[in-house]
Amino acid sequence: MTASIVTQANTTDGEILTVQEVARFLRVPKSTVYKLARVGELPASKIGKHWRFLRRDIHDWMHSRSQAA
Predict the structure, then answer these.
(1) Structure pTM?
(2) Highest CATH level, class, for 3-68
């Protein structure tokens, strides 16, 4: 892993999260995270077979959903 990737992965806003971490953060099943990512509702990137999420994107997504409700 390069230094720039390590640095970004360790910052609060740019922290990279896994499906399990997002599910724990949102308090939903992993299957819900997979479904939302697959249909494009949850901001995510797919790297090979693995979904990855930026913490700031998840925060922004939650904020936008609470504004719409």
Answers:
(1) 0.78
(2) mainly alpha
